[in-house]
Amino acid sequence: MEKFVNHIQLGYLGLLPFLACVAWPLITGSSAVNIAFFTFYSIAILAFMAGNLWRAGQQSYADAIKAVLPVIPIAFISFLPPTWILAWLAGSFWLVLLLEKSTPQWQSYHVDYQKMRFVLTSAVFVCHILVIGMSVYPD
Q1: What torsion, rounded to 10 degrees, do the Cα atoms 20, 24, 26, 29 define?
Q2: CA-to-CA distance for 92 and 99, rounded, in angstroms?
Q3: Nearest Cα to 22, choosing from 34, 11, 33, 10?
Q4: Measured between alpha carbons, how far apart are the two ends of the chain, in Å?
Q5: How far apart are CA 60 and CA 12, in angstroms?
Q6: Do 60 and 103 touch, CB atoms closer than 8 A?
């Protein structure tokens, strides 16, 4: 368990900016800057999470492709309306979790880490839904 404590703490700390991006507009009113910050932070965290699936030299070619699959389309979807980008990102966090659960390493992870991954993915998904709502109904 000890080797997962830092990962669990850092995971929950990484949720704070998502929560702040949801709370801030509720206090000050929604803005394009807030939605943009949330989107950029979400992309960065998604890329980080997908990058953790990358196990150079330890996985098949197909598994390596799966590891980057959620991130590659971001360059193309960045031209879409913000609500579509946020919806893609929300779904991609679930995809990364499903891909992580399909790895052989998942079974060796402590149950608290596995629970944390589900809780964080759920919370991040809800944050995305709320920010989509804020972008659709800004006032």
Answers
A1: -150
A2: 10
A3: 34
A4: 45
A5: 31
A6: no
pLDDT digits (tens, 9 = 90+) for 50-95: 888 887 667 777 877 888 888 888 888 888 998 999 999 999 999 9
Residue type, 83: T
- Tally the domains of the chain: 1
Amino acid identity at 71: V
Distance CA 52, CA 73 (A): 18
Six-digit token pair at 118?
């589900």
Distance CA 109, CA 101 (A): 10
Structural domain boundaries, residue 114: 2-136
- Rounded CA-CA distance 24/77 in Å is 26
Tell me if residue 35 falls in helix, strand or coil: helix
Residue 116 vs residues 18, 89, 112: alpha-carbon distances, Å: 16, 19, 6
User: What digits encode the pLDDT tens for the residues 55-64?
Assistant: 766 777 787 7
Q: Using an 8 Å Cβ cutoff, are 84 and 77 in contact?
A: yes
